[in-house]
DNA sequence: CTACAACCTGTGATTTTCCTGAGAAACGCA
DNA sequence: TGCGTTTCTCAGGAAAATCACAGGTTGTAG
């Protein structure tokens, strides 16, 4: 089931209307903090654990709809944790967190069962998007929820990564796509450059804050070119997207 | 009976609409785990057993529509297990798992009865495809479900392994065929290189991830050569296939 | 009206990602 | 066993994406 919050955000709900529950497992408190805040902001209920033992215990009583699991835990191997989690919750989808270079060599089968992974350092939008996808496909959320965002005559498909305005297909790069997704998930709402940087770029991004301006510029060229603009600047506050009409 | 899931995937169902039931028997927990995950993702109901005794017991009460059976079990010979299974479930199709160098004459004899086998290490796509075939032919699922995948003017027959585009036959190697099948079972959906590797290559593949790029390249040469391309790269995300039209 | 801050965007360097040719190794089959 | 086919590694090159920098433009406070 999906519902639309007063701010215009669309959020996932379980079939009975209660909020989605997510368990976050990582040994670095800064990471669990970061993720917990971001996921709570989605309207989800979050619990966290710092090791495998805690993860299995918490899973048993919390019964989450999805798990975010760091592959590198102090007390046990990632796959061992996975096995024990599966014994408790056979159908729960898992989003693995893994180091960039670890994904190259050894861990096969991460996506075999419909699970997914992101590499550290990740962007919050990426984690949220993948979690939404996992939850949607697992059937924990209502099936009517689909993967297409619509604002005015602009549509963005999270599965096929296709974007079109007024029926015309538009090619976006990965970063442009994530930025647009973030804007479209918060239509008519002003998002500050800091917010955008925090959500769309990886948490360790150390560059200049004006990349946001740059990418807004790119997006405008592709989305608004020769049309009624949908992306607007609120000087001193940030940016927002809204249907061209109003 | 077949139905189309929210993801656009087509899944097998029994005539009464309930999910297909599959029993997985292997003594290595990592194998039963991997298979259970992958088969559950097909929308099937899975039980697993680690030895012959457990297999027969579980079969008795679970009454699966198909069985995946490792021929090398700790407590009894594969043929013995098969015999006892047959006593419980005379008509259930069995997919044998066997080591590559195992005596294939015995297996060959067994598969005459409509059963099938794959050698370890297998790819998940291969197991799923063969299971689908077995279930379809056994009549446990609706017969109308056929074995031909179609995307645009491209068709792939899972039974005869024939592929053609715009009526013109195309010869593919085994790996190319499995890759194309995976793409075609998920049309218009971006599949990451990791996903492709996990499903199409054997679970013990330890090589470079760029084999995927290589085989995509091979496929393009055969499928898209001189035509409107159907296989598309989403840089930084993966690949997808879709009809040439859109 | 002016001056400043905020924002926009062209240019190009750097990095990342992807494609594909060549050849080695493994495989299948006669 | 020998030969053709298939699979895969390696590496060079092409293409695309990302980002810093800097000069230009616009909005706004005073």
UniProtKB/TrEMBL annotation, chains A, B:
Q: Which residues bind DNA?
A: 146-243
Q: Which residues carry this modification: 4-aspartylphosphate?
A: 70
Give this protein's Gene Ontology molecular function annotations.
phosphorelay response regulator activity; transcription cis-regulatory region binding
Pull one GO CC term from this UniProt entry. cytosol
Q: Which part of the chain is the OmpR/PhoB-type domain?
A: 146-243
Q: Does the keyword Cell inner membrane apply?
A: no
Kindly list the biological process annotations in GO that this record carries.
regulation of DNA-templated transcription
Annotated Response regulatory domain ranges read: 21-135
Transmembrane portions of the chain: none
SUPFAM superfamilies per the UniProt record, alphabetical: CheY-like (SSF52172)
Name the UniProt key words of this record, in alphabetical order. DNA-binding, Phosphoprotein, Transcription, Transcription regulation, Two-component regulatory system
- Gene3D superfamilies on file: 3.40.50.2300, 6.10.250.690, Winged helix-like DNA-binding domain superfamily/Winged helix DNA-binding domain
Designated name of the protein: Response regulator transcription factor
Tell me the organism. Streptomyces cupreus
């Amino acid at each position: 089931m999906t519902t639309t919050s007063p701010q215009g955000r669309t959020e996932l709900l379980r079939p009975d209307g209660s909020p989605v529950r997510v368990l976050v497992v990582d040994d670095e408190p800064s990471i669990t903090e970061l993720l917990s805040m971001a996921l709570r902001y989605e309207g989800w209920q979050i619990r966290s654990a710092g090791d495998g033992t805690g993860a299995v215990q918490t899973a048993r009583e919390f019964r989450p709809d999805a798990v975010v699991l760091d592959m590198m835990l102090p007390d046990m191997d990632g796959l061992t944790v996975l096995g024990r989690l599966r014994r408790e919750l056979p159908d729960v989808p898992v989003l693995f967190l893994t180091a960039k270079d670890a994904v190259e060599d050894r861990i096969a089968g991460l996506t075999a069962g419909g699970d997914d992974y992101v590499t550290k350092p990740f962007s919050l939008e990426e984690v949220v998007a993948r979690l939404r996808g996992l939850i949607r496909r697992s059937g924990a959320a209502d099936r009517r929820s689909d993967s297409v965002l619509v604002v005015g005559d602009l549509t963005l498909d999270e599965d096929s990564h296709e974007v079109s305005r007024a029926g015309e297909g538009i090619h976006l790069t990965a970063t442009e796509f994530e930025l647009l997704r973030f804007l479209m998930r918060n239509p008519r709402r002003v998002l500050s450059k800091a917010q955008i940087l925090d959500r769309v770029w990886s948490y360790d991004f150390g560059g200049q804050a004006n990349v946001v301006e740059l990418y807004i510029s790119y997006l405008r060229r592709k989305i608004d070119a020769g049309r009624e603009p949908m992306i607007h600047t609120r000087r001193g506050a940030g940016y927002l997207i809204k249907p061209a009409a109003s």
